[in-house]
């Protein structure tokens, strides 16, 4: 059940409606059997319940859950076991992912920007937005008005949704968020304003992309080239970082100029 709840949440984040099959279509594969956890009956039954037959197992399952069960599922294969035992998560997902947040901008010319946010920040400050606007104008005159709608992502999700909070779950959630932004405006390049390498954008064993001056690695799924340099709030606090950040952006500037030409 935990996997199903997470799947539906990620699909909603990607803007995909959830549909549930009620019959098996010709040529379709067999549906996955849903194993539900059923609470044990109360220890203290009513005084006049001695001759009252116990309700069938299927009657103890909510109607919505019974409707989702496949036709092959019967009361005999509904397990009385914790959900975690029927839906194990990989060991790598047991380690919680650190909390993080970023803002995303689709700026044009095949370029998107990911700006990491400082702790407890909901979005970029006005001064950081102005700095980003100046950076984009310096990269390409066509991007002088590129700072438009700001999409923010916060991990873990606000509120207690009962979802996994491990690294694998964080990566899947970010992938769904990025997929939605890519549908709005496809990007072939991503500028990451982040002091540290965002682990949710790289393969676990990837070595490229750790340093700003290394060649731009390509995302494993979305296939945009990625360039990382200092975060906006770090450059705002330490002006000396702006020079090294601009030097790192020259590769990106050259690509934008070639595309414009």
Essential attributes:
261 residues; alpha/beta; Uracil-DNA Glycosylase, subunit E; five-stranded mixed sheet; 5 strands; 30% helix
What does this protein structure show overall?
The chain is α/β, with parallel strands linked by helices and 261 residues long. It has a domain at 100-260: 3-Layer(aba) Sandwich (Uracil-DNA Glycosylase, subunit E). 30% of the residues lie in helices and 11% in strands. It has eight helices and five strands, in the order αααββαβαββααα. It has helices spanning 2-13, 63-68, 83-86, 126-139, 167-184, 232-237, 241-248, 250-260; strands at 100-108, 111-116, 151-155, 189-193, 225-229. A five-stranded mixed beta sheet has the order 3-1-2-4-5, with helices on both faces. A hairpin with a 2-residue loop joins strand 1 and strand 2 (111-116). The chain is globular, with a radius of gyration of 25 Å. It starts with a helix and ends with a helix. The model is unreliable at 57-61, 68-93 and 205-210 (pLDDT under 50).
Distance between the termini: 53 Å
Would you identify the CATH architecture of one domain? 3-Layer(aba) Sandwich
CATH topology of one domain: Uracil-DNA Glycosylase, subunit E
Treating each run of at least 4 consecutive H or I residues as one helix, how many helices? 8
Strand content: 5-15%
What form results from the Cα inertia axes?
globular
Structural class: alpha/beta
User: What is the succession of H and E elements?
Assistant: HHHEEHEHEEHHH
| Cα Rg | 25 Å
Number of strands: 5
Helix amount, in percent?
Answer: 25-40%
Average pLDDT score: 75
Assign the CATH class of one domain.
Alpha Beta
Strand order, biggest sheet?
3-1-2-4-5
Poorly predicted segments:
57-61, 68-93, 205-210
Q: Outline the biggest β-sheet.
A: 5 strands, mixed
């Amino acid at each position: 059940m935990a996997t199903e709840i997470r799947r539906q949440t990620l699909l909603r984040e990607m803007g995909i409606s959830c549909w549930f099959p009620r019959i098996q279509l010709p040529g379709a594969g067999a549906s996955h059997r849903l194993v539900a956890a059923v609470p044990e009956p109360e220890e203290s039954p009513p005084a006049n319940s001695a001759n009252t037959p116990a309700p069938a197992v299927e009657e103890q399952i909510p109607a919505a859950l019974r409707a989702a069960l496949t036709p092959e599922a019967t009361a005999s294969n509904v397990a009385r076991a914790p959900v975690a035992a029927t839906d194990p998560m990989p060991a790598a997902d047991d380690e919680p992912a650190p909390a993080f947040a970023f803002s995303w901008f689709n700026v044009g010319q095949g370029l998107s920007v990911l700006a990491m946010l400082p702790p407890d920040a909901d979005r970029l400050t006005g001064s950081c937005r102005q700095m980003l606007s100046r950076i984009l104008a310096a990269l390409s005159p066509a991007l002088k008005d590129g700072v438009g709608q700001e999409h923010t992502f916060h991990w873990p999700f606000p509120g207690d949704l009962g979802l996994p909070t491990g690294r694998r779950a964080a990566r899947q959630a970010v992938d769904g968020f990025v997929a939605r932004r890519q549908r709005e405006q496809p990007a072939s390049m991503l500028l990451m304003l982040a002091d540290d390498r965002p682990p949710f954008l790289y393969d676990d064993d990837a070595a490229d992309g750790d340093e700003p001056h290394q060649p731009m690695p390509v995302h494993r799924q979305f296939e945009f080239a990625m360039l990382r340099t200092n975060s906006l709030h770090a450059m705002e606090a330490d002006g000396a970082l702006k020079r090294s950040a601009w030097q790192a952006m020259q590769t990106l500037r050259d690509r934008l100029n070639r595309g414009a030409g």
